[in-house]
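Quick one, probably user error.
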């Protein structure tokens, strides 16, 4: 009710170019000294991105943009009726989905009834452009939940994803990491970096016909306060956004037909360090991923009593 009252009585404002730039014009010294720099940044923010929603009754799902899957050519018509062609528009991830959506739309006879809209987004980054095709990708009809061939364990960390490939009897057959750097990145850059690594992770699981196992994380305690007990690491951890990573993994896995098992994270790193790190010749995070996979498969792991006592004493000191 309060929101309805505000919408009725309050005049809604619009800030072109982002509120950050609007405030920065008055607060940042660099903009005070060089007004043309602010003007340039404002033009880039205001006109640097264009998104055109699709129409289900359009021939190729969009009245402005038209994509040719055979030649990978994207054409669009501007307001002044000027036709612009972009050659070699290829999507590293999802090219098959784009081709299928456009071919299906073009072959439909009754587009008003069965058609699907296809949106397009064009971003100007100065030295290059980013083209995005916005389509609805249905989830895979078959979800691989079987652990008969094994499991792929995943341990999420501040600067990499540790992965362990486990066979049906609980043995580690492969272990590696997917490194990345989120330091100093914007929220949008963090999202893109995470998405790229998640795609590689899920594709690996699809290739080996195995589900994924991740740990249920408490970002405020288990991954921030204890393992990285300093302010700089905690700041990087807050940028890392574990929730964003787990959501990205689940979303991508659902589309690709890969099941995701979520297990209790208690003592996974300690068990991996004490029992498997030296034996397998892997890092502590790879060993933790191995323990996560085994736990999801039903194998029981216990922390050695003597080692657990020593660790507790050190922690209390």
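Nope, works fine. Designed sequence:
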């Amino acid at each position: 009710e309060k929101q309805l009252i505000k919408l009725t009585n309050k005049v809604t404002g619009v800030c072109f170019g982002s509120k950050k730039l609007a405030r920065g014009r008055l607060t940042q010294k660099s903009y005070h000294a060089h007004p043309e720099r602010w003007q340039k940044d404002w033009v880039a923010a205001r006109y640097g991105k264009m998104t055109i929603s699709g129409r289900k009754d359009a021939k190729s799902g969009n009245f402005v943009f038209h994509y040719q899957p055979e030649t990978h050519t994207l054409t669009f018509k501007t307001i002044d009726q000027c036709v612009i062609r972009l050659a070699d528009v290829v999507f590293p991830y999802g090219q098959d989905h784009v081709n299928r959506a456009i071919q299906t739309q073009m072959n439909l006879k009754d587009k008003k009834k069965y058609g699907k809209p296809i949106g397009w987004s064009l971003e100007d980054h100065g030295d290059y452009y980013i083209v995005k095709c916005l389509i609805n990708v249905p989830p895979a009809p078959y979800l691989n939940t079987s652990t008969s061939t094994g499991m792929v364990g995943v341990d999420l960390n501040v600067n990499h994803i540790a992965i362990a490939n486990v066979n049906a009897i609980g043995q580690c057959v492969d272990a590696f990491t997917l490194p990345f750097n989120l330091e100093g990145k914007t929220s949008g850059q963090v999202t893109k970096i995470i998405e790229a690594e998640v795609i590689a992770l899920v594709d690996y699981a699809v290739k080996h016909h195995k589900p994924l196992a991740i740990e249920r994380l408490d970002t405020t305690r288990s991954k921030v306060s204890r393992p990285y007990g300093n302010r700089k690491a905690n700041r990087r951890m807050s940028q890392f956004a574990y929730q964003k990573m787990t959501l990205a993994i689940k979303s991508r896995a659902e589309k690709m037909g890969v099941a995701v098992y979520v297990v209790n994270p208690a003592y996974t790193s300690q068990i991996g360090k004490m029992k498997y790190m030296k034996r397998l010749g892997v890092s502590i995070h790879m060993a933790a991923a191995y323990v996560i996979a085994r736990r999801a498969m039903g194998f029981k792991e216990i922390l050695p009593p003597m080692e657990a006592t020593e660790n507790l004493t050190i922690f209390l000191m």
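Confidence is low (pLDDT under 50) at residues 224-228, 307-317.
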